[in-house]
Amino acid sequence: MLDSLSVSGSNADREPEPGRSTQPAALFDLDSSLIGCESVRLFGLHMLGLPPAFAWRLCGAAVSDALPTNLWWALALWALGRVDAVAREAALHGFCEARGPAYPRGALACIDWHRRQGHLLILLSAGPEALASRAAAELDFDAAVGSRIQLGGERAQLDGAECRGAERLARLQQLEIFDAIDWPASFAYSGRIDDLALLGLVGQPIAARPGRRLRRHAIARGWEIVDWALPGER
């Protein structure tokens, strides 16, 4: 079952084209590995008017797990669609600028190591791409990929599918730097079971703050596992 989600003929098995200059990359999932929460949940709570600090605390509670992400998207986009296009832009900007918790120290040290190695840094999120881009700028990443939102028209809606699984790989392949990456020498950090294809794309897959299913899979495959503690966690 899990193997069916992996990439067949992944780039980890391919050699770079002769004469083509490539460099390794390090890919990080924002939600599972760096903030420990589905950012679309935060988006939904923000659009309901909850203060950022309370939204962050509630995001990790059982009540936020009770709704699947597609319902959180429906809730957030419904709330966003109640105002005009200009106000939608301001609301999305306000969400992205809201101060959240600090990133795990271990993750920041890891990012710094990759930066010093000269690796390309790519941030991925199943939440709003605007948030991924904001976090990428803050962390000095080279690129960001996330779920796109159409703010114009009668209502706000996703522009394409949510950025996870096969859609995430498709969005990644659209990046200008995709063909400049040495995939067998690259790293990917994620705690998502639906990122198996992404983890199979690189030569160095790392299960970062993984859920139970991905942890079992990583142990079975002999992958490295890192459990970066968020501030306040032991």
State the gist of this model.
The chain is of the alpha/beta class and 234 residues long. It has helices at 30-35, 39-47, 52-59, 62-65, 69-80, 85-97, 105-116, 129-139, 166-173, 196-201, 212-221; strands at residues 25-29, 120-128, 143-147, 149-150, 157-158, 187-190, 204-208, 224-226.
Your description of this structure?
This protein has 234 residues and is α/β, with parallel strands linked by helices. The protein has 11 helices and 8 strands. The chain has a domain at 3-36 and 103-226: Rossmann fold (3-Layer(aba) Sandwich), CATH 3.40.50.1000. Helices cover 42% and strands 15% of the residues. It is globular, with a radius of gyration of 18 Å. Mean pLDDT is 85; it is low at 1-14.
Write down the oligomeric state.
Answer: single chain
Q: Would you state the CATH class of the domain at 3-36 and 103-226?
A: Alpha Beta
**DSSP helical segment count:** 11
Strand order of the largest sheet: 3-2-1-6-7-8
CATH topology value of the domain at 3-36 and 103-226: Rossmann fold
CATH superfamily membership of the domain at 3-36 and 103-226: HAD superfamily/HAD-like
Radius of gyration: 18 Å
- What portion of residues is helical? 40-55%
Q: Which class best fits the helix and strand makeup?
A: alpha/beta
Percentage beta strand? 5-15%
In total, how many beta strands?
8
Low-confidence stretches: 1-14
**What distance lies between the first and last C-alpha atoms, to the nearest angstrom?**
33 Å
Q: What overall geometry do the principal axes of the alpha carbons give?
A: globular
Order of helices and strands: EHHHHHHHEHEEEHEHEHE
Largest sheet: 6 strands, parallel
What is the architecture of the domain at 3-36 and 103-226 at the second tier of CATH? 3-Layer(aba) Sandwich
Whole-number mean pLDDT: 85
